[in-house]
Each structure stands twice: as C-alpha cells, then as structure tokens.
Amino acid sequence: MKKSLLTIILILLSLTIVAQENWETYLVKKEKGLMTISVNMDLNLNKPNYKNLLIVGTSTKKCLKNGYPDTEGLEELYVFSDSIAFAIEKVAKSRLAGIITYQCAGFDVFYVKDTIGLRASIDQTINNNFSQTKNYNVIARDKNWDYYQESLYPKDLSEDFFMNQDFLRQLVEEGDELSEPQILKHWIYFNNANNRSKFIDEVKNLNFTIDSVNYKKDKKFLVGQNTLYYNYAKTRAYPFEVKISRKDSIGPAPISKLTHLIQVAATGFKGIYDGWGFE
Questions:
Q1: Do the beta carbons of residue 39 and residue 23 sit within 8 Å?
Q2: C-alpha distance from residue 3 to each of 59, 75, 79, 149 (Å)
Q3: How far is it, in rounded angstroms, from Cα 266 to Cα 279?
Q4: Which letter does DSSP use for residue 106 in this model?
Q5: Tens digit of each residue's pLDDT (9 = 90 or more) over 35-51
Q6: How many Å apart are CA 130 and CA 270, to the nearest integer?
Q7: Where is 82: in which H helix or E strand?
Q8: CA-to-CA distance for 119 and 125, rounded, in angstroms?
Q9: Quick one: three-class SS letters along 205-218?
Q10: Does residue 255 contact residue 168 with C-beta atoms inside 8 Å?
Q11: Strands (DSSP E) along the chain, which ranges?
Q12: Which of 165, 211, 196 shows the shortest CA–CA distance to 265?
C-alpha cells in the first residue's frame, strides 16, 4: 500500500512540473515502430547555458502490442524518471528538454550545466533501485543544442499538425499500430452551396466518396485574426456541410499530407475543414 501511494505522489509531482511549462507531444514512425516524443517548447527560445546532453532511460515489460507502455508500464517509467531527476539535482543544475517512449522503453532528455559526479550519482540510483531492468545512460557534449533542434523539436508547428497528433496519440495509447489503412471520414463546411458544389467536384477527382450533403443552420466558425490593435476575428455561419471519405494510411506522415491536401482544397473554395475520424 505504501509503495502504491508513493508512486501516485511521484507521478503527480512529475505532472505538476511539466504542466507549468509549454509541452507538446507528437509521433514519428521509426524502423521498429512508433516513437512518441514530448518536448519542452519553451526551450527553443529560452535555452539555459547548459552545454551537456544527458539521455537516461529504462525499459518495461508492461507494454501494449504496439510497443507503447500500458498504464502500469507508464507508472514504472514515471517512478524511474522522478528518481533520476532527484539524482541529477544532487550534483548539477539541469533542464528536462524531452521525453521519448519507444519499443517498451522510456527516455528522459536533459541538458545539464556540469557533469562532475553526474554519472556516479545516476549509476548509484539505478544500481540501488532499477538493477532488474535494461537501462540507458548517455552523456555527451552538445553546446549548440543540436539534439534538441534535430531530434526533439517538431518540424511542423501548425495547429492542424498538433490536432492530428492528439488524435493519433489517443489511438496509440489504445494499442493501435497505425499500420493498416482505414476508411477516413472528413467534414468540411461552406458559407454557400455553390462553393460546396465546386469543392465536391474537386475531391471527386481525388477519388473521395461523397458520403452526405447537409445543411446545418447553427454551424458557425470563428474566422479572421485578432491583432494588438484591431479585432478581425468574427463568428460567421458555415451551414453547408459535406462529409467525404477515402481509404488512407493513418501513420503520422501520411495523415499530415492527407489533411493538408483537404485543407488546401477547402480553402480554395472558401471552406473550413473541421477534422477527420473513422468508424
């Protein structure tokens, strides 16, 4: 019972610290499967003068078929992470830059100011508490934060990208391998029937099926942008709905290309793409 309570406390402390910063999570397809990357976005513009890269990780046997840790596996990784963070704090100043999960393993990516006594402190924590698992401990010089920029920070910063990633991450957490093509459904809205008709002709040429055409009188979107001095954003009616579908891959890269394609087509006829899903 005491162990369970301690685990819960450590997880809550870890989540509280992360919640105070701006983090984003996304998926990438690697040779052996899907990799989940969480990155501290604030560090892109506010890097401390820490020139040493530290990657510490451990493995768990409690994971789903797709290699993502299940609830108990995540709990094990959180306990490891908090223990390692405490070991680092005893000898050096650091910032947590990223968290990676891949093939039943979790890795914490730090930048640290000083490495004196660092490896010994981490090794002692691992040997005393986590000797039964496969562990990783890498320290390297990275004064320009190349690993952060090239391996952690996302290349796509669009709102659509992160919306897609949120949905994909939910599927992965449920055990989906994102390897099988699915019939994906997409919802697009227009402010008049003529633009909708032109869009339908366009997507038919792209082999989409028209599932339904409806009129949603209460469907509205906030369009335009607000600036420091002027308010250009206004709520406007887009009641002319069309739902389309096509069988496509749902991996991270294919879904980004697909939604961008539909977004461009919708914008070309003054429409608004409202997302995707499948049955």
A1: yes
A2: 20, 12, 11, 38
A3: 23
A4: E
A5: 999 999 999 999 999 99
A6: 57
A7: helix 71-89
A8: 10
A9: CCCCEEEEEEECCC
A10: yes
A11: 23-30, 33-40, 52-59, 94-102, 105-112, 135-141, 182-190, 209-215, 220-223, 234-237, 240-248, 272-277
A12: 196
Amino acid present at 91: V
State residue 8's pLDDT score.
46
Here the tokens at position 122 are 């981490």
Q: Which residues pair with 213 in a beta bridge?
A: 242
Compute the distance between CA of residue 170 and CA of residue 181 in angstroms, rounded to an integer: 17
Distance CA 85, CA 81 (A): 6
Q: What tokens does 177 get? A: 């391998």
Cβ-count burial of 110 within 10 angstroms (0-12 exposed, 13-18 middle, 19+ buried)? buried
Return d(Cα 200, Cα 246) in angstroms, integer: 13
**Angle (nearest 5°) at CA 249 between 157 and 37:** 40
pLDDT of residue 225: 58
Cα–Cα distance for residue pair 145/51, rounded to 1 Å: 7
Burial of 187 (0-12, 13-18, 19+ CB in 10 A): buried
d(C-alpha 232, C-alpha 224), whole Å? 5
Q: Which two tokens stand for residue 198?
A: 């032109």
C-alpha dihedral sign at 263, 265, 266, 269: positive
- Which two tokens mark 117? 């006594």
> 14-43 burial, b for 16+ CB within 10 Å, e for fewer?
beeeeeeeeebbbbbeeeebbbbbbbbbeb
Mean pLDDT per block of 10 residues along the chain (279 residues) reads: 43 50 95 96 96 98 96 97 97 97 98 96 96 95 98 94 94 94 96 97 97 94 63 82 97 95 96 91
